[in-house]
Specification:
single chain; alpha+beta; Alpha-D-Glucose-1,6-Bisphosphate, Chain A, domain 4; 2 domains; 8-stranded antiparallel beta sheet; 6 helices; 14 strands; about 35% strand; elongated; SRPBCC family protein; ASHA1/2-like_C
Length: about 260
Amino acid sequence: MNERLLTTPDGRSVLHMQRRLAHPPAKVWRALTEPEHLAQWFPTEVSIDGDQVRFGFGPGGTVIAHDPPRLLALTWGDDELRWEISPDTTGGTLLDFTHTFADRHGAASFASGWHTCFGALSRLLDGLRPHAPGDTAALHEHYVAILGLSGGTARGGTVRVERQLTRPAPVVWLALDGDRATVGAPPPAPFTAAGVEAGPVTRAEPGKLLEFDAGAGTVRWELTEGTGHGARLVITHRDDPATLPAWRAHAEDLATTVAGLTT
């Protein structure tokens, strides 16, 4: 495997993945472009009519490059997908794939999804039935680590930690003991971080949001729609930038915990 996450001058993210396939480029090209093969490894139904592309979910797209049997590039809504294939020295194929998108924090979801797809593509080329998709939570967390997605920021006195999780918001809320949150009372312990003074809860929306006073500042937890099957976690702590390491570590601990849960 060879994965990298780059940033374009205009701030978009580019996921680069490379695979070596033990089959000649002409065979790989057919698997990349012929509908009966695409249906066995691509994440959704896809049909190409001229330069127009239709997918089984989400917006449509356009073919922006088509150079058989070397290059296929198309858009999927605002995203761009690009496959480049070339022969390697063993008679097989080197596949270079890039996915360009705006949501950097969704990169691990994209990477784990494409990893699974390319595994299915490899089995298809080998003449085997692709495996049924399984739980990719551990794979997602692996990509969070290797793509460097576990950081946060401290700007203008406010800490912000954003993290894609692998389980839906109701499951995460229960893991946080969110159903015990009461306005005016201290927040449940899973909402607090080491060294952060926790005052009373000032706002609670079950499964979505919790705010509480923290010394001279305010902590806000949000669970919103994420990329893939899990919720997007955003923690902000106003007026105490020194708490960034604590909240970053806490978000990682939570991500590890929920990845081990079943839905």
